[in-house]
Amino acid sequence: MKLKIDKFGPIENAILDIRDLNIFIGESGTGKSIIAKLIYISNTFFRFLNTKEYDQNLAIPILQANLQKAFMHSYFNIFKDSYTDFNLTYFYDDEKYIIFSHDTKKEFEVEFSTKLNKEIEFFYINYKSRFELLEEKLQEDEMTLNIYGLILKQEIKKIFAKENYVYIPAGRSFFTMMSNNLFSIIEGGVDIDQILAQFGTLFDKNKKEYGKYNQTFSDIESSFIKKQYRDLLKGSYYFINDEDRFYISKNQYLSLNQISSGQQELLPALVILWAILKSKTPTTIIFEEPEAHLFPKDQQRLLELLVYIFNQNKIKNRLLITTHSPYILSVLNNLIYAGKLQSNSVDENLYLDFDNISAYALSKNKAKSILNQENHLIDANYIDDVSNDIAIVFDKLLDEEYGE
After folding, report:
1. Exposure winner among 37, 177, 186, 357, fewest CB in 10 A?
2. How many CB atoms lie within 10 A of CB 128?
3. Domain range summary for the chain, segments of one domain joined by +
4. Interhelix angle for 142-160 vs 114-130, to 10°?
5. Could you give the C-alpha distances from 358 to 17, 29, 82, 295, in angstroms and in order?
6. Which of 99, 93, 96 is nearest to 38 (CA)?
7. What's phi and psi for 48, nearest 5 deg?
8. SS3 (DSSP) at 20
């Protein structure tokens, strides 16, 4: 998969390879989240497909047009009309892609490649033949019509993405702080984009079950996972008597608005990761700023947990991370190197294959690959640049004090 960007937001031109594990690093405002959201939209937009009007006489061009409308709906739900005069292309493969563009002289426009249109046509012809018996009842039963539309949406998803997509956004501590009011926020007509709404819904849906199980992970047999959760949270979340409780000792607990900022950032993310582990469903996890409010050791623990989930043998998961932290890159390099050596000092479930990874640094309106093809690691020079800049300032101060 690839994403081609021309003049969108802070990114002037970029062609990005999308692999199984993807990392985007850079300063604030360089376009990391924009990339993550464009990838998310391109693989989930069919959720906005209107199926209420569908019947056995639906023409294929209408279905194709409605899919294009769904893409535009998904885009505007997140980006509004903030950006103009751009061209975006998302490649599912070399011949199967979506072009989304805007020209100052034209409206926003969505185009499907010839191969993608043919796949939609082929899918729908075969789909209709599989549901002939159902179609015979459509005019008689409105409920059957709705079922038909829902099944259609679920099946057509497979043209675009075979796995689920879960987006863990930055600023997730908001959902911890508002834990008791999440349902009213999500369902109460508050203007909230689909990414935040999905994340809030998943957290609200799973936190009670997670809390009632008391983190026993009864159906997730992994001492590694249990240890990571325990070491990261430094406490235990329970849901007792319709109340959120975070226990810091056997008999002492805090409300969620009293726990640390790091714990508030972690809790909703860990609840959703627990749900992904429990579901055993192939999932692409898009995780913004996993390092937020975390000490470097905890950044390592969280990244290792994500890699462990990514590496589940029976599940084809994918992972995309946006970050400001060089520590994240250093941990990834250790795991790539461990995989290369088949090291006994690192859990084999944490091994990474360099060929399955993409890594980009964003700056000055560009995205540059920071994979070193010679040593098969992430470029150490990039990792060291920030530390070197700080060291140079310190050396100058020493020279100022003691002289050269």
Report:
1. 177
2. 16
3. 2-163+325-402
4. 140
5. 7, 20, 28, 25
6. 99
7. -90, 10
8. coil
**CA 109 to each of CA 5, 25, 105, 225, 326: distance values in angstroms, whole numbers, following the listed order:** 15, 30, 12, 45, 38
Report the residue count for the chain.
404
Per the CB < 8 A criterion, the answer to whether 177 and 256 are in contact is: yes
Is 43:157 a contact under the CB 8 Å cutoff?
A: no
HEC secondary structure over 264-310: HHHHHHHHHHHHHHHHCCCEEEEEECCCCCCCHHHHHHHHHHHHHHH
Task: Report how far apart the first and last C-alpha atoms of the chain are (Å, whole number).
Answer: 53
Write the DSSP string, 211-240. Answer: HHTTT--TT---HHHHHHHHHHHSSEEEEE
CA distance 102 to 8: 10
Cβ atoms within 10 A of the Cβ of 164, count? 16
Name which of 131, 151, 133, 142 is nearest 53 in CA terms.
142
Backbone angles phi, psi at 363, to 5 degrees: -170, 155
Instruction: Annotate 137-161 with DSSP letters as a single string.
Output: TTTT-HHHHHHHHHHHHHHHHHHH-
Instruction: Write out the two tokens for 148.
Output: 């038909």
Q: Which of 64, 66, 183, 179 is nearest to 122 (CA)?
A: 64
